[in-house]
Design brief:
This protein is α/β, with parallel strands linked by helices. About 25% of the residues lie in helices and about 30% in strands. The protein has helices at about 35-45, 60-70, 85-95, 120-130, 195-200, 220-230, and strands at about 5-10, 30, 35, 50-55, 75-80, 105-110, 115, 135-140, 145-150, 155-160, 165-175, 205, 210-215.
Length: about 230
């Protein structure tokens, strides 16, 4: 997959991760001694991404300084800052303007995700369906433990945070560049572009059973640390 490009949403303030984000954007929160976005770039590179466009805003200079001192091997990293908040859809649209016109597929992702899902499977699914966007879905895991009972109220067993029979948007996408014309100049792609693509029959899904964790809270940081330590053994 030579020449594969990725767009990474990295403009979040990470309010729920304070104090880690008081002086740095959310993707720069440290996990096991390296920024969250470093781990994400490593994951992207393992699947052949060699061009990363970091869509940034809040305190993005911190990221620039870090990667100036810690150059990522065999990957060109480009920063695409916003002059004003564009929303996620607007940021993706601006980022697509920087992609080489000859590219026929772009990986787009939220900048706060830890996963070991190989991109090859998502890409193959996108090419096979031929839509404008393919969403990686992840199983919905309950936030609570479940208690199983008999009809008479007798407790049978406890089940800790089981996987439920539903799928959630994993925040990782394969885009055909033509999606740019349907993305908002400002706003969110999930409330504007995706519903329209679904109506047109041009939005598809790839169901992933891989490990997937969005890092939103300090508690998530602890879990991400354990997961990444296992992955890097």
């Amino acid at each position: 997959m030579a020449g594969l490009a990725a767009l990474i949403l990295a403009g979040g303030r990470g309010e729920r991760l304070r104090p880690y984000t008081e002086n740095a954007p959310k993707p720069m929160v440290p996990v096991n001694g390296k920024p969250l976005i470093y781990h994400q770039l490593s994951w992207l590179q393992r699947s052949g991404v060699d061009q990363a466009y970091i869509l940034c805003g809040y305190k993005y200079e911190v990221m620039q300084d870090y990667f100036r001192e810690n150059a990522f091997p065999d990957m060109a990293i480009h920063f695409v800052p916003e002059d004003e908040p564009l929303g996620r859809g607007g940021a993706f649209k601006q980022g697509l303007s920087y992609i080489d016109p000859g590219v026929d597929l772009v990986i787009a992702t939220n900048g706060d995700i830890v996963t070991d899902q190989p991109l090859e499977e998502l890409i193959e699914t996108h090419r096979r369906f031929g839509g404008l966007a393919t969403i990686m879905l992840s199983p919905l895991r309950s936030s609570y433990g479940i208690v199983h009972t008999q009809d008479d109220g007798r407790v049978l067993m406890f089940q800790e945070k089981p996987i439920l029979p539903y799928w959630v948007n994993g925040g990782i996408y394969a885009f055909s560049p033509a999606i740019k014309n349907l993305l908002p100049n400002k706003g969110d792609h999930e409330t504007t572009t995706f519903p329209e693509l679904a109506r047109q029959g041009k939005l598809f899904a790839f169901k992933s059973s891989a490990m997937w964790l969005p890092v939103d809270t300090v508690k998530d940081l602890g879990e991400a640390s354990k997961i990444l330590a296992d992955l890097e053994k």
